[in-house]
Amino acid sequence: xxxxxxxxxxxxxxxxxxxxxxxxxxxxxxxxxxxxxxxxxxxxxxxxxxxxxxxxxxxxxxxxxxxxxxxxxxxxxxxxxxxxxxxxxxxxxxxxxxxx
Length: 100
Hints:
Structural class: mainly alpha
Radius of gyration: 19 Å
Number of strands: 0
Number of helices: 4
Helix content: 55-70%
Strand content: under 5%
Shape: elongated
């Protein structure tokens, strides 16, 4: 699994498809195992989404306070799909949907 929200979304939908598969539904042991895996994935996914929401909130506060020109802490680093830190206020504002 890759480390972005689109891949997480794909993985969760794939898990849903497997759970509704007729072969899975017929095998009680397999269904039980898959339900436990789905429950664990759901819990982890919720935490990942909570962290993403918090990062967006922190970036919005930084933007509101005029701090996007400052170097952001590594924990709040915004990265693009190529894992490079996004540079420039305009790009960060575009990401946040607050471009002027």
